[in-house]
Amino acid sequence: MPKDHGIGASSKRREDERFLTGVGNYTDDINLRGQAYVHFLRSDVAHGKINKVDTSAAEAMPGVVRIFTGADFDGVGGLPCGWQVTDKHGQPMQEPAHPVLAQGKVRHVGDPIAAVVAETAAKARDAAEAIEYDIDELPAVIDMKKAVQPDAPKVHDDLESNLCYDWGFVEENKPAVDEAFEKAAHVTTLELVNNRLIANPMEPRVAVGDYARATDESTLYTTSQNPHVIRLLMGAFVLGIPEHKLRVVAPDVGGGFGTKIFHYAEEAFCTFAARALARPVKWTASRSEAFMSDAHGRDHVTKIELALDADNNFTALRTDTYANMGAYLSTFAPSVPTWLHGTLMAGNYKTPLIYVNVKAVFTNTVPVDAYRGAGRPEATFQLERVIDKAAIELGVDPIELRRKNFITEFPYETPVAVAYDTGDYHATMDKLEEIADLSGFEARRKESAARGRLRGLGVNTYIEACGIAPSNLVGQLGARAGLYESATVRVNATGSISVMTGSHSHGQGHETAFPQVVADMLGIDESMIDIVHGDTARVPMGMGTYGSRSLAVGGSAMVRATEKVINKAKKIAAHLMEASEADIELKDGQFTVAGTDKSVAWGDVTLAAYVPHNYPLEDIEPGLEETAFYDPSNFTYPSGAYACEVEVDPETGKVTIERFAAADDFGNIINPMIVDGQVHGGIGQGIGQALLEGCAYDENGQLITGSYMDYAMPRADDVPFYQVDHSCQTPCTHNPLGVKGCGEAGAIGSPPAVVNAVVNALRSGGHDLTHIDMPLSPSRVWQAMNA
Amino acid sequence: MPEVTMTVNGKPASGEVEGRTLLVQFLREDLNLTGTHVGCDTSQCGACVVHVDGQAVKACTMLAAEADGAEVTTIEGMAAPDGTLDRVQEAFKEHHGLQCGFCTPGMVMSAAALLRDTPKPTEAEVREYLEGNICRCTGYHNIVKAIMAASGQEVSALAAE
Amino acid sequence: MYNFDFVKPSSIKEAVEALGTEEAQALGGGQTLIPTMKQRLAMPAKLVSLSGIAEMKGVGKNAAGELVVGGATPHATVEREAGDYPALAELARHIGDPAVRNRGTIGGSLANNDPSACYPAAVLGSGATVVTSNREIAADDFFEGMFTNALEDGEIITEVRFPIPQAANYQKFEQPASRFALVGVFVAKLKDGVRVAVTGASEEGVFRWGEAEKALSSDFSPSAVEGLSVSADGMIADLHGSAAYRAHLVGVLTKRAVAAAG
């Protein structure tokens, strides 16, 4: 019987009521009295020297309050990068300045040149068109391999080159890896592109800055996945506002997928301008603006080589990747192609020797940073594609080749510095074979052939590192912040509870799932518990939501705080029942004394905590509120096996996804309904990457895919129903809930399944090819068939 | 500036608008009905879908002046006055058809229009009808399932759990 | 958007008058014009809405047996009411999305003549007549290349008259992002021969594929166009497909349209 409440129950989401009735509170729904509106004049060239920005005519336009340019930000800090990578020679990465408004040069289409604050958004835009500026267009660098040539134009004149870093991992292993390749019985080599994507949460970014002269306090309302991180970065590094004078609120946020982690210029601008003008300043991005100002994702060009022995055991893996950073370093950009990518190159396989090289490159494009999966999809894609190619070359079954090389003993130390605590890769593959009905594939292929369609099957596995992560470890790896999480459990006199969590929910359903955990621990009804998040004034501290970390890290902090509450409540209960604290048990919201029929209810204890007439005042303080910070000892390692079946129209190259199945191991599950939904959404985005989405620049750095007219978003008729299963559960061993995280799995695991399937379909039609780069649009597939 | 008058969610509403004022701006800014969202500027995402004289339209691609005299229903007008959700809203909740909630108002309004014209749509009809509504969170699985369920069709066998 | 004056006349006569002033522009359903204006790529001083003109709305049949569609008729109405010309109703059913179809109009589509729009293929493929506020224009004379046509300033498309073919079909192959036609082919078997109109493919906008028309006029079967191909010269090449790919699709879709037309 499925549970109907608490951990493991598919509790319906309490968030839904407000979203379904139109009374959600998104940032753009916030309008403050007297607010002005900002419009950013953005560069329409990819690279240029700013000779002049003359705002005088524009200042005289109706409704203009003030116009700001880069000069107004002299002496103000630039946007900081939160992660420093050390290159293979032990040197720190090259780190350029990133001014709030462009100073001296513009470096990508969309780089803000000036900001017009006016009485209405339309008037701000009208005036922006009246700004006279003179920019000498410079040659742009767009292609990464050209950008690192010695004679390439430099994105940043004060840096030595466009190479941010050249990272080797693990550098000391390289000779051994090279030697293994020399001895290999077979080597499979694959060159591929992990296509550049735009996250496209449906809510565009919005920022509203406010300033209270009476208290000298600044407030920023923003579409962020992590308001405390924004407070830290903007307050300390950009504007110099101490934490107690700066409040950051991220109310209902309409999706993030990584791109709302980062601290953006527009946030700093609105906060700065509200202070300068002593009135609220609001910015709402249009979708077109989002395309050229939200951090993009992926964009790797990789050569991967897999060495096998005569028995088809993987003996070594070697990769060479160029990773696009764009024109500036976004908040966590340097970590994505390194620590979130290189450490995952072992995948689910016991390859003993691995070497990863990554060259991070500056180009005249929008900055690139984490997008759902961040580094792990790139690792998974290349690994699972090269294995399929090896299976083709060796004439063996791709599933059997994988099974032969699965890691089966846990804990397992990979040659790329991480230790998997638990997993059972054969179990998830077994489950996949069952739910995907792989044994029925050949019959379905015949049926497709009868209709003139080529059917293909693609299977792959994935592993990811989630629950990011141990502060001491990430500190060694270059993170400039801790990555713990905090929670405060505030029990009120009536027994109701507010849980203040540093995790942020922007679709993940924390308001529903988190109370399930606390309710289970206390034995009270979920409806007595509310989750408070997204406001630095209401939540003590937080590192936010990304990297599938909310439950594993934030949930664990909540568990620790709840344990503290229980411990104190038991002391109170012991006093009330005149019993020994050691004998107190808590079950179903009742405190009992073991071996007796004495009991007090949860509400009696909470009332006593706040009305302490009969209370052990000599031993404990009144009140019932506890805070915990949780810093895990390791990442978590969700894993799974995915299968995709496609049909290809051989005349047009159009690919349709016929079936998609996912067997995941997320450890313990709190709310299966929400977990299913997370996997569905991830698969939808993964299919998007594989078939539809691809951000394209022309050679001059103009963004070709600047709107939904050219950037293909997955629609309802691009995807099928998905079969998802998470019954294989090997709980995480090092967090109190035994959970691993599920938010990114679908996006990580699905692209290789789709591409493997299309290659399989085309080969079945007699096309002797082993790879097509994503997105597998009809024209690309047709071209591959007719090459 | 011209004055427009319309009936919004059963109540009279009027205001002065510029020629360029979009219906969605009038709803959000003048009437404070912020449930209708703007997710793109090329008339594709569908977060702004409302009903004008009973027909689904994109409120970001219709001038407020064009709705003068019209009956407009927004997401705020879908539930019964006592707060009871309508069948589409209820089904979205029951089947987890929303995550971040941003596309949801438009999805619900589109789905309601579909079910009025096609009371028992097939899965393919639902997917095709949603061509103008983009969701980034759900992979559409539970949205399609919810709409099928709202039409009174059995969904457990349709969508593998 | 830049600001503008908005007027909503209730007759063709009033509309023509309103359009007589400088920088006035007609507004059909606005499904292309409004997004264009949002990008500030168009800046009319006055918009003349055609949505309040009852005489320009609806689908009917005239004495000559032609299907007559009012210029301000939304796609959704054609989808529902053009049952006498199923291929046209089916074409309308795949324009944009349902909400767009409730606003977008046939007159607006033809006046804009987007090279990837669907309606131009039906009008040219059917040999329809475009009726305006002051004349009748044969389809063969109406389309003059990408975003250009025979309309003069202030001239309004009041209705379109479609001869109803013996058999017809439209095959649309969608551009994956915009869902406009990457290539669309309209095939119509009329009493005086077969017409094949292609949209989405050419830099010159919608065009007739003469070679296929000739072959199909003598043998209306998919095999008649087997082996025929259009030249890739002058075809659109972009992110979504090369000129060669588009030329290839013209052949594939023509064959499929003939097969579906039966």
Describe this structure in words.
The complex is a heterotrimer of chains A (787), B (161) and C (262). Helices cover 27% and strands 23% of the residues of chain A. Chain A is built from 19 helices and 30 strands. With 161 residues, chain B is of the alpha+beta class. Chain B folds into 2 domains: 3-77, Ubiquitin-like (UB roll), CATH 3.10.20; 87-150, [2Fe-2S]-binding domain (DNA polymerase, domain 1, Orthogonal Bundle), CATH 1.10.150. Chain B is globular. By secondary structure, chain C is of the alpha+beta class. Chain C folds into 2 domains: 5-162, 2-Layer Sandwich (Uridine Diphospho-n-acetylenolpyruvylglucosamine Reductase, domain 3); 167-261, Enolase-like, domain 1. Chains in contact: A-B, A-C, B-C. Chains A and B meet through helix 1 and helix 17 of A and helix 2, helix 3, helix 4 and helix 5 of B.
Return the CATH architecture of the largest domain in chain A.
2-Layer Sandwich
Q: Which CATH top level class of the largest domain in chain A fits?
A: Alpha Beta
Got a strand count of chain C? 12
Per DSSP E runs of 2 or more residues, the count of β-strands of chain A stands at 30
Oligomer: heterotrimer
CATH topology of the largest domain in chain A, what is it called?
Aldehyde Oxidoreductase, domain 4
Structural class of chain C: alpha+beta
| N-end to C-end Cα span of chain C | 47 Å
What's the overall average pLDDT of chain A, rounded? Answer: 97
- Proportion of strand residues of chain C: 15-25%
By DSSP (H or I, 4+ residues per run), the number of helices of chain A equals 19
How would you sum up the global shape of chain C?
globular
Evaluate the radius of gyration of chain A: 27 Å
By CATH reckoning, the class of the largest domain in chain C would read Alpha Beta
Can you tell me the CATH topology of the largest domain in chain C? Answer: Uridine Diphospho-n-acetylenolpyruvylglucosamine Reductase, domain 3
Low-confidence stretches of chain C: none
Given helix and strand content, the structural type of chain A is alpha+beta
Placed side by side, the strands forming the largest sheet of chain C appear as 4-5-8-6-7
Overall morphology of chain A: globular
